[in-house]
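Figure S4 source data
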Amino acid sequence: MRAWSSPDVPILPVTGPVVRVHDTASDSLVETRPDGAARMYVCGITPYDATHMGHAATYVGFDLLNRAWRNAGHEVSYVQNVTDVDDPLLERAAKVGVDWADLALRETQLFREDMEALRVLPPAHYTGAVESIPEVVALIQRLGEAGAVYRVEDDLYFSVGADDTFGSVSRLDRDAMLAIFAERGGDPDREGKKDPLDCVLWRAERPGEPSWDSPWGPGRPGWHVECSAIALDHLGAAFDVQGGGSDLAFPHHEMSAGHAQVAHPGEPFARAYAHAGMVAYDGEKMSKSRGNLVFVSALRRSDVDPMAIRLALLRHHYRSDWEWTDDQLWDAVDTLGTWRRALALGAGAPSAPVVTAVLDALADDLDAPSAVAAVQEWVESTLGTTGLADTSDPEAAATVHRLLDAALGLSL
């Protein structure tokens, strides 16, 4: 599956510091010290609807990590999946009366366009669940050899007890896991399971559903094993960062890690698990079921500058939970106008301090709000109260322009 086009990103004349991120598994800041290229896997969309601000916040957040690593001198191997066959997609397609594959293609293309407009760097490998079925089958076979697979009727399940570290990613107790598992697509009450938390690896063919051949009969992959297989195929075990929304810590990332760690004993799935916060609207987390979605594509069709959308997102720390309001967007539009006036002057306040402040902030758990504040301080110093206050740096505007693009993804 193809990704989207990559923007041209300027190279900064300085090298950024070592990047630290908050690791959910240890509940602490950890240094990322890639061995070779930095390796990151971020869970992608299930393409049954358009990209909303919650999605955008997550992918812009991890785009900051991609850029921070590059500015620190690392090459980056970035992988993202598309869950282009799963229950929500099939249910949506049936409800609106369209072919599920056509719906997946349409919404994936819209996602590409949204990411390109927001200047999110594309993954090196953008892989759909359907195209990863051979890798999924191979991983399930390996888990079977490890004694971690059993049948319930014609479906295959993973025994979470086969992973001695199960629970260490999300750090939840069993009661919390059971409650969340039921809320997020699990089936704890299914008869025949050895443990209520065991998750499906291969779902046998149901009437009217798509299916693919396998050694266990026709069917389709479970959700969690899809990401395990894709990540292992392109990144190997013990990659640097597994990313996604905080609602993926359990069960998705916990289960994916379990699959990988049983298949590769002694090696962690990822060295760090970073999770983005949830975005609300009208007092509730954005979700299709609540109908409280703000779509990136709708704003773009309304002639809203995508850089204003991105700036509105950057004003919130990627790990924070927050609520989208239209006022934030219009304030970002106004802010960009002020920034552009400062950049148009050419000369300006010294640029070295803002370069250092921005790179340091982003290396410290992707602290975009502090980086944005540092840029705002430079703009105010440059414009002064009655015009250009400080012309000591004749190349200031050019330097800050490159910084905004390379570090924050803002092309002004």
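Figure S5 source data
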Amino acid sequence: MELGMRKKLLLSEIVRNLNAYLLGSDKLISKFGNLSSATDKPQQQLTYVISAKYLKSFNTSNIGACIIHESLKELCIKEKSYIVTSESPEHMFYTIFMECYQNGNYETLSSTRDSSTIIAPSAVIHDSVVIGKNCKIMDNVVILPNTIIGDRVIIKPNTVIGGDGFQVKNLEGKRKVIPHVGGVKIMDDVEIGSSVCIDKGLFGEFTTIHNETKIDNLVHIAHSTVIGQSCTIAAGSSIAGAVTVGNNVWIGVNCSINQLLNIGDYSLVGTGSVVIKSVLPHKKVFGSPAKTIGLVCKCRADIISSDEQLVCSQCDTRYAFIEDHRLVEVANF
């Protein structure tokens, strides 16, 4: 799910007043994004690159169009569409995006609120917020536009959901925090502690917290991150932008997880860890930078080596390694 532009723009329209020209076929654009942005409309996405390495990644992607510097023109292929400029592609990209934002060219949600939900008098619920059944929203909670709250969700005091993330760019000679046009989706049976901050998606995507995940106090979850089902995130942890956390993941107190990483199912991040590389499923990591120190069963107990087999120390589930050092249950091997 994502929020797009109210009016799609042709690439030929976009370049009309720019120091740029169109190379390749004209296309309708309904959203902006980085190469890593999640979208269900890749062919309608405009992105940008600043090096040959990333242009090659764009050329093999299913993203529709890209802004490039003219020095990279020789690497373009006929199947793709490009906006070619002698200026900074990044600056041009964010200038176009800001103009669309300032023109109000972005979708918003229609507000709904189930009567069974309890909302404290001091909570602030903005327009364009959807709230499900039997939720409890406590004192001084702020829920900003384009937020979806599922059923039986608990949000404790002083939490802010749906604010802009922290994306700073130089535009028109000034450093600016880029406005975010996506949203936040909190699914059923999630519990969110006090003074938590969950930022909305940057380019129309939704920061998403899946069913039955429990979040402790003073946690920050940045823009466009996706947290899986039944995760536990302890106090003081910070998860940067566009991180994907799998199901049944445990993140300990005061952990930091770098942007764009994948944290695999059933993994465990130990207290105070700084994660700068993706973590495979069932791995236990710890330290700064975090390193693998063991393996974790789906029941949360340690996996140990016994009689040349990998077996859970509590539930006796057996595991085996497959390619890329991934761990699977033997029954599924």
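The two ends are 33 Å apart (CA to CA). The chain has a mean pLDDT of 94.
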